Amino acid sequence: MALPAPHHGEEERMKNILKGRRAVITGGGRGIGRAIAARLSEHGATGQVFDLANVLDGATLPDGYSGRPVDVANEEEIRAAFEQVAGDGGQLNIVVANAGIVPVWRHSDGLDLEEWDRVFAINVRGVAATLKHAVPLMKDKGGAIVVTASINSLKGAALQGAYTSSKHALLGLVRCAALELGAHNIRVNALAPGPVLSEAMRERLRYRAGKGGPSEAEAEAQLAAQAPLNRVATEDDVADGALFLASPLSNAVTGHILPIDGGFGIA
Ligand code: NAD
């Protein structure tokens, strides 16, 4: 049976649901972050992508977006970038704190603590610093903050101690920020993607294959088989979740984490 046609005017409403909104997306130069920037752009938002200079160099950004080189591990760079946003008129409605790194797989007893510090400097402190400097620009008018956490925020993952701990920490940050910022009409939520075959993820699978692990195709099939929907999520699936959390579609949602994982996390 054919699905019912959308309500009259519904498509138009969805298309323009972010019209006039200004967004900042960290780590938006490639991968999941870029897909999120593209989805927000399709629905009317404009803004800036903060990412590492070498990534922005080769990146084609979506319509309405400019790039700004920012290392989120460097608070001074974040402060200066948001100062520029403020100088450009100050309007900021959406922040997607997405920049993050995934280190190579490592046994917990072989943890490299320098690597641990680097993961936390980017994945946790980088998000905290992003919120610290973004929130003053949003306090007057309210807004939506979306943090890219991970399904690893909700479950353990062997050989990923530093990464998994960093993504668990983000849950605490999101919940505290949601409690503190609700009075300013700022909503704070997290996305929890399951395995997504971004280029970064494919690089890691190739690395593992090179170490005698399953081939890239076998690894993808194994990941899909762990999800009730028998597939991994795509960058576009995650971008759809970001659109929901960044838009008025989720006006009554704050402090939550939204798994986008084909059900991977409940298995
Ligand atoms: P990616 O490497 O393509 O994207 C990460 C982005 O962050 C890149 O553009 C990168 O340049 C940027 N970045 C890294 N360090 C930075 C820094 N110090 N300052 C500024 N920007 C920096 O990988 P991805 O798979 O698209 O991951 C995006 C986010 O999604 C990450 O937070 C990651 O942890 C999360 N995530 C990914 C998966 C997955 O399977 N791919 C699953 C769950 C969560």
How does this structure look, described?
The chain has 267 residues and is of the alpha/beta class. It has two domains: 16-196 and 234-266, Rossmann fold; 197-232, no CATH class. The chain contains ten helices and seven strands. It has helices spanning 10-15, 31-42, 53-57, 75-87, 113-123, 125-138, 161-181, 199-210, 216-225, 235-246, and strands at 22-26, 46-51, 65-69, 94-97, 143-148, 186-193, 257-260. It has a seven-stranded parallel sheet with strand order 3-2-1-4-5-6-7, sandwiched between helices. Helix 2 packs across helix 10 and helix 4 packs parallel to helix 6. The two termini are 31 Å apart. The model has no long low-confidence stretch (mean pLDDT 94). The structure holds nicotinamide-adenine-dinucleotide. Nicotinamide-adenine-dinucleotide binds next to helix 2 and helix 8. Residues 26-27, 29-33, 51-52, 55, 70-73, 98-102, 122, 148, 150, 193, 195-196, 198-201 line the site of nicotinamide-adenine-dinucleotide. It comes from Roseitalea porphyridii. GO terms for molecular function: oxidoreductase activity. This is SDR family oxidoreductase. Keywords: Oxidoreductase.
What radius of gyration results from the CA coordinates? Answer: 18 Å
Identify the CATH class of the largest domain.
Alpha Beta
Strand order across the largest sheet: 3-2-1-4-5-6-7
β-strand number: 7
Give the ligands present: nicotinamide-adenine-dinucleotide
* Overall geometry: globular
Number of domains: 2
What proportion of the residues is helical, as a percent range? 40-55%
Mean pLDDT score: 94
Distance between the termini: 31 Å
